[in-house]
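subagent[fold] <- orchestrator: predict structure for attached chain, return tokens only, no commentary.
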Amino acid sequence: MWDAPELHVDRILGLLVAEKVDFVVIGGVAAVLHGSARNTFDLDIAFATDAANLERLAAALSPLNVRLRGVGEPVPFALDAATLRRVEVLTLRSDAGDLDLLARPAGMSRYAALRDRADDFDIEGSPVRVASIEDLIAMKQAAGRQKDLADVAELEAILRLRDR
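subagent[fold] -> orchestrator:
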């Protein structure tokens, strides 16, 4: 198994923005951007599945030497629009850190709704959509893992503080 490289969120997001990829940051990085104290070791993004966006997504990630994560030995792999069209979840290792690509995150009915409710953040000078706290809560509840349920409690607390 390969050692995981350090996560460079700004580098990955910069490439996605430069290629005009239609995506939303979800998962632990999104929670941290909303104020969570959670540690995270990968970047999770949801993405639009139209053909043009799949081409842009593949092009954006090509400089990062992406490879499959979670396989016992390195296997030949090419990230392209055809591959992206066939997957719901793709877990990758890259030169900029671990990355999870989700076409349809658990707890979300449609990507367009996730995108429309997303909050806009400025990350190193790039405008980036980040899942709303409410959508993060829904996704983490749907995932149902212990760590996700702990995140739900923290995100609900952050939401209550914001509502005051």
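orchestrator: received. Logging for downstream: Residues 84 and 163 are 38 Å apart (CA to CA). DSSP finds seven helices and seven strands in the chain.
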